[in-house]
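Read as chain and fold; for instance:
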Amino acid sequence: MATEQTFSIIKPNAMKKNAIGAIIKKFEDNGLKIGAAKLVQLEKSKCEEFYAEHKERPFFGELVEFMTSGPVMLMCLSGEGAIAKNREIMGATNPADAAEGTIRKEFGDSVGENAVHGSDSPASAERELSLFFEKSEFVNI
């Protein structure tokens, strides 16, 4: 398996729980490293661009409102099979269905407020990373 990069967001509900350290520890304990990171308050327009694929879905407005409701931690995770590994560490989208020990099981509140986001493919990772990071910000890859 090749070394790859993926995009991750620690969402506002997990930030309110002060779970940044615990979540990052799960990534690092599973062989992923932080290649770039920043704490930001998402602007509505940037959030709408990020979630553009969901624009026609009924939950779009609620999703944007939630994601702009507080600070988030944006990260590039790097490692062997980083995309699949990150998705495994995150757990199922619905925290009620997520496996014990996964981030969403431990810190998620609902399908909409599920603590973290992770890219689902190499193409998504590339698009998402380029939306939030300049090439010069990748310092640990």
